[in-house]
Structure formats: structure tokens, C-alpha cells
TrEMBL record:
Belongs to the cytochrome P450 family. This is Cytochrome P450. Heme binds at residue 478. InterPro entries: Cyt_P450, Cyt_P450_CS, Cyt_P450_E_grp-IV, Cyt_P450_sf, Cytochrome_P450_monoxygenase. It comes from Clathrospora elynae. Pfam families: p450. Its cofactor is heme. Keywords: Heme, Iron, Metal-binding, Monooxygenase, Oxidoreductase. Gene3D superfamilies: Cytochrome P450 (1.10.630.10). The keyword ATP-binding does not apply. GO terms for molecular function: heme binding; iron ion binding; monooxygenase activity; oxidoreductase activity, acting on paired donors, with incorporation or reduction of molecular oxygen.
Length: 531
């Protein structure tokens, strides 16, 4: 039997039905048992979007976890964890995928280059990821990096022929010994990473090409504020661009990406040319490029499919150079900033560096101290580790999705069932502020990493591995961490063997509230003094 309803009755029913719908969804959602970071969080994702759009996610999550504990609900389909057991150990070591098996959404798809060609970092599911990872793990492993002849020759050339001469050239300028350390350190890490990838001849030389550094950093950093729409709401963004003909990101961002892609493609071509000519000196060996070319062409042959090799290869290496220079440059900038604020620590480090042999002194045939000797310096290690902890270059959430069958998350005494396809993340910036693991966590104290034997095994494991998350953990952990530490140690050793630093201007040094977090001002003005 049909009941005839008058139009006013229908109008009155609509809001009632809407509210009922929201209530039913709420009651059926197991996430409603998890403490809500905001009163709206159980009902809508708008709040989570809004803290991201306003770039206050880190500060907001910190406050919410302090108030509500190690697991919180950010939206009807999203949680944040801030603990090891029932947290990062389950999610990241447990192999939760970057892509959502349910709807195909992948936050990292944004990092596919050359019109959506996936690479190690942006691949959403574990299977294709491990295939690519197998091609790369060996050349980035600690034993390989430490023993690499090409890398040592490249680092030596960059330190002695570019970095140290550049530092000494700053004294003949109108502001003797004053420079923007962030730009120099980013240029240096870019040169080392691209030379390991493409070889010294085909890699970049940003240290000696000042305009190129400014050009690159401007392109690279200016895009950052436009990430929100394509990354968080790719479908909506595509819809608006297609049907409403409105660009959510300005055209020049796309052009900037194109420039960076062209620049990378040129280095690929140059490395290819060096390989065809035949590599005579080890410094010109394109270690990463060559490895990828060998393994990827074998795979393509086997499958007879896939994106054209050149685009896959370029997309892969572009990601390594971007991931590699930026994060290491940021970390080093904070090492210099903290050492400049702590002259005692700086002097202690300089005394430690005097024990290196050979020392960083120019000669007709300069040789670097052994990688193992540099790696073994306790204070240098402590200074870098403490900076990775307190000023993680990637402090923001690393999103994953719960597996289709669902899972249980939360600290042992209080776990929650989470269905499949729920976004879950943890943040290095928050894990590293745990006072129980890192006493006086908000202070930069390299001492905490010294004489660790006396702390006992458990405490040490907590500090060094369980809670230390600067490089992430599990199968998607940073593949370049050993190269990163290698280059950071050499750069700091070379700098402080010969110079002392003081701050000239550090306005805007605080980190941006974002996934990768450089200084807000993109600069750190430092004065050098010869020791
Ligand atoms: C201080 C320096 C560095 C830091 C703090 C850092 C941090 C990280 C973190 C946290 C991740 C995981 C990100 C996520 O899952 O959301 C990651 C992944 C990655 N990093 Fe690094 N990184 C550094 C240097 C490098 C270098 C030098 C390279 C050069 C090859 C590199 C290449 C990569 C790649 C390719 C991935 C993706 C790995 C995968 O998905 O299997 N990183 N890095
Ligand atoms: C994140 O927020 C907390 C609390 O406001 C702050 O102490 C910390 O420095 C922030 N981290 C970053 C990387 O911005
Ligand atoms: C490094 O310091 C030594 C003295 O310890 C000095 O002789 C040398 O010239 C300095 N090297 C550079 C490249 O500035």
C-alpha cells in the first residue's frame, strides 16, 4: 500500500533521514570505540582534511595523542597510532600497504613521475614493490656503501674540489665567511647522491653552479604548498579540473615538475653516454643507474611488458635524488644550527675530528679518511642521531591501509578491532618525543647517545631501534639510509675539521608542519671562522 505524502512532509523527512543515515553509519563503525581526536572525527573526514589543509596536522596530533593516548580516531575511516606494540610494529613491520586494496587510493601516487610512472617510493602494493626493491637493496646496503670505491672517489672529489674550496671562497666576498648553509648543504647532498647514481661526470655540480641551486630549490620548494588537493583528494581534484575547468594547482607547478624531469632525463642520457664510451675512472661509474638498467631490462625482457624502460628508469632515479638530497640537506642544516647554538658541543666535536687520519687538509693528492673510521666516531654519530631524532626531515604521518581482513591495533591493555581499508599512520616527530624513552625529549642532547652500554639492553633497543623512526621501519623503510648517514658524516667532518660556525640569522628556522619538513624560511645564515 502506498501512503501519499504531502510535499511539506517530504521536506521535513529529508533532514531526519540524513541524520538517521549518519547515525547508522556511526553505530556500525567499529572505529567509534576509539577516542576521537575531535568531536566530529567519528562522523566525517572534513576535520582531518581541514587540519592538513591548514598545515597544523603535527601540532594537532601531538596535542590529541597527549590527551587521548596512543591510538586516536581522525575520521570515520582513519586512525593515528603513537606506540610500538600495537602500533608501528604491527603496521609497518607488519607490511600494511601504501595503497588501499579497497578503492585503489594511494597517498604516495603523487610521487610517481613522468606522467604517473611508478617507482619504489610511490608503488602502492607490496608485490611489485618487492620486485623493484630486490633490484636496489644491494647497492644501498651498508656493506656496499661503506666499501664502494666509486662512492669514496666521488665523495673525495666533491669534498676537496668543490665543498672545501667553496667554503674558503666565501671569505673573499663582501660578507666574509657568511653563507646560506641550507642552500650549500642541499647542493652538496644533491651532488653526492646524483654522483652515486650517475657517476661524477654525469651527475650534478650544484656547489659550483650557484644559479642552478637557487633555480632547483625554488622549483622544488615552491610546489610544496600545492600538494594538498592532488594528494589528499585526487578524485575531487580531477573532477573539478575536468568538469569545472578549474585548476586546483597552478599551471606553473606542473611546469616546475617538467623542468625537474627534464634535468633528470639529461643526467640519465649523460650516464648512458659515459657507459657507452666505457668507464675508465671509478669516480665516473654510474652505480645506481647501471644497476637499474641491467636489472630492469632483464625484467622487461622476461615480462615483455611494462612502461618504456627509459621512463621507468628516470622515474626511479628522480625519486632517489629528490628523496636523497632534500632529507639529508634538511638534517644537516639542523646539525649546523644546533652545533652553532651549542659551542661546547662544537668544540668537543672538533677535538674528536682531530683524531681522524688523514685529516681534512688540502694537499696535492687529497685522500679522505676511511669510511669506517668516520663512521666509528662516537660524538659525530651522536650529533647526527640526535638531530635525526629531534628534527626528523620526514616528521609527518606515513599513511598505510589496514589489510582487507582487518586487524587489531592499540596498546596491549587496550586494543581495538579495525576493519580493512582504514587509513592508519604514525609520525616520527611524535614517536621521538616519548619522554619515557628519550628523557627531556624536546631538548637537543647528543650525550644521550654516548656510553649507551651502561643503559642496559632494553633501554638501548628502545632508543636505537624500537622508537627511533627517522627512516621509518619495515619493508618500506628508507632504502637510502646508509648512503644518507655516509654523506652526512663526511660533510660534517669536513666542515668542522676546518671551521667553526656561528648563527648570523636563523629567523624561520622552525620546521614546517608537513610530511617533509624543511626550515620555514628555506635558509640559515651562518658565519664561518677558520679554526
Ligand atoms: C637523512 C636522510 C633521509 C631520511 C630522514 C629519509 C627518510 C625516509 C623515510 C621516513 C622513508 C619512509 C617514508 C614513508 O614510507 O612514508 C624513506 C623512504 C625512502 N627513501 Fe629515504 N630518507 C633519507 C635519505 C634518503 C636517501 C639518501 C635516499 C637515496 C636513495 C633515499 C631514498 C628513499 C627511497 C627510495 C624510499 C622509498 C623506499 C620504499 O618505499 O621501499 N632516502 N626515507
Ligand atoms: C610537532 O608539534 C610539537 C607540538 O607542537 C612540536 O613540539 C614539534 O616541534 C613539532 N614537530 C615538527 C617537526 O614541527
Ligand atoms: C683545514 O684546516 C687546516 C688546519 O687544521 C688548514 O691547514 C687547511 O688549510 C684547512 N683546509 C681548508 C680546505 O680550508
Amino acid at each position: 500500500m502506498l501512503v501519499a505524502l504531502s510535499p511539506p512532509t517530504i521536506a521535513a523527512l529529508v533532514p531526519v533521514l540524513l541524520v538517521a543515515q549518519i547515525l547508522v553509519t556511526y553505530l556500525r563503525n567499529p572505529l567509534r570505540k576509539i577516542p576521537a581526536a575531535h568531536p566530529l572525527a567519528h562522523f566525517t573526514s572534513l576535520w582531518a582534511h581541514s587540519i592538513r589543509w591548514r598545515s597544523i596536522e603535527n601540532a594537532t596530533l601531538k596535542e590529541a595523542h597527549d590527551r587521548l593516548g596512543p591510538i586516536i580516531c581522525l575520521g570515520p575511516n582513519e586512525v593515528s597510532v603513537n606506540c610500538v606494540k600495537g602500533g608501528i610494529r604491527d603496521v609497518y613491520a607488519g607490511g600494511f600497504e601504501k595503497g588501499n586494496a579497497k578503492d585503489g587510493y594511494n597517498w604516495y601516487a603523487f610521487f610517481a613521475n613522468y606522467g604517473g610512472v611508478y617507482n619504489l617510493f610511490s608503488t602502492g602494493s607490496n608485490k611489485p614493490h618487492s620486485l623493484r626493491k630486490r633490484m636496489l637493496s644491494k647497492i644501498y646496503s651498508k656493506s656496499h656503501v661503506t666499501a664502494s670505491e666509486p662512492l669514496l672517489a666521488q665523495t673525495s672529489a666533491i669534498m676537496y674540489k668543490r665543498f672545501l674550496p667553496y667554503l674558503s671562497s666565501t671569505f673573499s666576498s663582501s660578507d666574509p665567511g657568511i653563507l646560506n648553509m641550507y642552500a650549500l648543504l642541499s647542493a652538496t647532498t644533491m651532488d653526492i647522491v646524483t654522483c652515486y647514481i650517475f657517476g661524477l661526470r654525469a651527475g650534478s655540480n650544484l656547489i659550483e653552479n650557484r644559479e642552478q641551486v637557487t633555480w632547483f630549490l625554488d622549483l622544488y620548494n615552491s610546489r610544496r604548498s600545492f600538494n594538498f588537493w592532488p594528494q589528499e583528494l585526487p578524485k575531487f581534484t580531477a573532477f573539478v579540473e575536468k568538469w569545472l575547468r578549474y585548476r586546483m594547482t597552478p599551471k606553473w607547478v606542473e611546469e616546475a615538475n617538467g623542468e625537474i624531469e627534464k634535468w633528470t632525463a639529461k643526467m640519465c642520457d649523460d650516464a648512458g653516454a659515459v657507459m657507452t664510451e666505457g668507464i675508465s675512472e671509478s669516480e665516473n661509474a654510474p652505480v645506481v643507474y647501471q644497476q637499474l638498467q641491467n636489472t630492469m631490462s632483464k625484467q622487461a625482457e622476461k615480462e615483455g611488458v611494462g612502461a618504456p624502460l627509459t621512463a621507468s628508469l628516470a622515474s626511479e632515479v628522480l625519486d632517489h635524488l629528490a628523496a636523497g638530497f632534500d632529507t639529508s640537506g634538511i638534517t644537516l642544516t639542523y646539525v649546523v644550527h644546533e652545533l652553532s647554538r651549542h659551542p661546547d658541543m662544537q668544540a668537543r666535536l672538533q677535538r674528536e675530528l682531530l683524531t681522524l687520519s688523514p685529516r681534512f687538509v688540502p694537499s696535492s693528492s687529497p685522500i679522505l679518511p676511511e669510511p669506517k673510521a668516520v663512521d666509528a666516531l662516537p660524538l659525530l654519530h651522536a650529533v647526527i642521531w640526535e638531530t635525526l631524532r629531534l628534527h626528523s626531515a620526514i616528521p609527518g604521518p606515513q599513511p598505510r591501509f589496514t589489510p582487507p581482513q582487518g586487524c587489531c591495533l592499540g596498546p596491549e591493555e587496550n586494543t581495538y578491532y579495525i576493519p580493512g581499508g582504514v587509513r592508519v599512520s604514525a609520525s616520527a616527530g611524535l614517536l621521538h618525543l616519548n619522554e619515557e624513552v628519550y628523557e627531556r625529549a624536546s631538548e637537543w642532547r647528543p650525550e644521550r647517545w654516548l656510553d649507551m652500554e651502561k643503559l642496559g639492553d632494553e633501554k638501548r633497543k628502545d632508543m636505537e631501534s624500537r622508537w627511533f623512526w627517522a627512516f621509518g621501519s619495515g619493508g618500506r623503510m628508507c632504502v637510502g639510509s646508509h648512503l644518507a648517514v655516509y654523506q652526512m658524516k663526511y660533510i660534517i667532518a669536513a666542515l668542522y675539521s676546518n671551521y667553526s660556525t656561528t648563527i648570523v640569522d636563523d629567523t624561520g628556522i622552525e620546521q614546517t608542519d608537513s610530511y617533509t619538513a624543511p626550515p620555514r624560511s628555506d635558509k640559515l645564515m651562518i658565519k664561518l671562522e677558520k679554526v
